Amino acid sequence: MYKVFTVILLLFIGVSSATRSFNTPSNNLQRLTSDHRDKNVGFDICSTCIDEAVTVLNVLLQAILDEGIYATCGDLCGIVANKTSPFLGKVCDIACDAAGALEFIHLIVKADLDPIWYCEMAKMCEINDHGDAKFTNFGVYPNIGPQGTQFEIDCSFKSLNGTGTSMLRFIMADSHNQTSDNDFLIDAKKPGTYTEKIGLITASAWNCDPVKGLCDDFPVGTYNVTVQFCNGECGSHHPHSSTYDVGQAQFTVTKKK
């Protein structure tokens, strides 16, 4: 009876919260270069799992809201298999078994399962709790340019012990202190030095797609950029999550001639 009451209480707390997801990068941002020495099928599985995690977790939350408590992981994840695919149902099974059915339900209804940790529990993404990474030449180049300039944010890094499944969180603040968060998934790396650059295109207003209609010019002004390099999801309190490094820089967009 107590467990039933606990889950019902958590439902009222969690139903208003959406499952956390990666912040989709703006149309103005483009990942320019990345070192693919470690690119393999394992990372393809990991990125696929993360891409589908939000859909899966929302299916699970809706199932719990509709039907209440499920006694086993098999019962709960069977719904995922039926509504998505057998593969995603199996991923759900592994993650649920790792957490335990009741705890898994608690995490879902509290909207407290971030996609990377979920896929790590499902053994789809690599874990390295002893990893490290430091930016080697962080900055924005050039640091001043007219509207239409493509700025490059250098996020190249060096790791002595390798990294786990990670992310770069790009945060840009304008002169009015309005911010935009944009996330990029980074696969687990072996020790080494890696090139990682993000292009910021200022040909049109922030997040406006010229294909879909007319866009204003990119606003002139000075912008502050912060990039967090995190093991796991930035800001997560779950295991296998930490901040490797933080880079800060500034650039200025002037009026085009």
Automatic annotation (TrEMBL):
Keywords tagged on the record: Signal
Segment forming the signal sequence: 1-18
Name this polypeptide is given: Countin-like protein
Keyword check for Signal: yes
